[in-house]
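quick one, two chains, predict together pls
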Amino acid sequence: MADDDDILRVNAAYYRAFATADFTAMSRIWAKEQVSCIHPGWPVLIGRDAVLDSWKGILGNPGSEEIEFHEATAIVDGDEGRVLCLEVIGPAVFAASNWFRRIDGQWRMIHHQAGPVALTPDRGEDEERPQRLN
Amino acid sequence: MADDDDILRVNAAYYRAFATADFTAMSRIWAKEQVSCIHPGWPVLIGRDAVLDSWKGILGNPGSEEIEFHEATAIVDGDEGRVLCLEVIGPAVFAASNWFRRIDGQWRMIHHQAGPVALTPDRGEDEERPQRLN
């Protein structure tokens, strides 16, 4: 489960960079190649330049809402892994998939997608209890 | 680019199964292990049983809307790959990431997430991107 712990730590670092509007940390978390991102409501972004440009805009105009994540579940296969979680940003809840690749011993983000959820996390927890698969 | 062609073919088969409400084809496309899915508005689904149950419900109540996909782009790394595309379902547009793993020589779906896009594909270049929080 060491891989799970490692990837969950990087996932937490991603949300810390987001919550503190730390663009330097955010750009370090993302891999150099084969990256893509779909922010809520946005079209598909492909390539490190497009993805980091989007983060520069988002982190340059931080909202006043708290940003939290909950119910993180890791699924790891070799040097590829994902973390599935719920994001809570003020009153809004998003379901997110965060994909990482281990490059030179370090997990780097290669894809992020988040979209609005119709349920609150509390109600979601009652209905779908995340489970570990590996 | 042969890998790209192969994964794009399986991505097309996924949308064909969806559009024709073919549950048998859909269940064959999904891998047996380490699968997850986030339908628009839904919480995170983890595990083949939860994912196929959701598809049984969706395909068992097909809408009258046409289902199409556009602008598919493949990113492949060894035996892992994703296809990013736009889904058009009636008047609604979704941005989707479809993740596949090559198992015994065959690409199988391991993750799908789709979420609503604020722009239509055609108008995407003309209008400013929505500034959403993440």
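The two ends of chain B are 32 Å apart (CA to CA).
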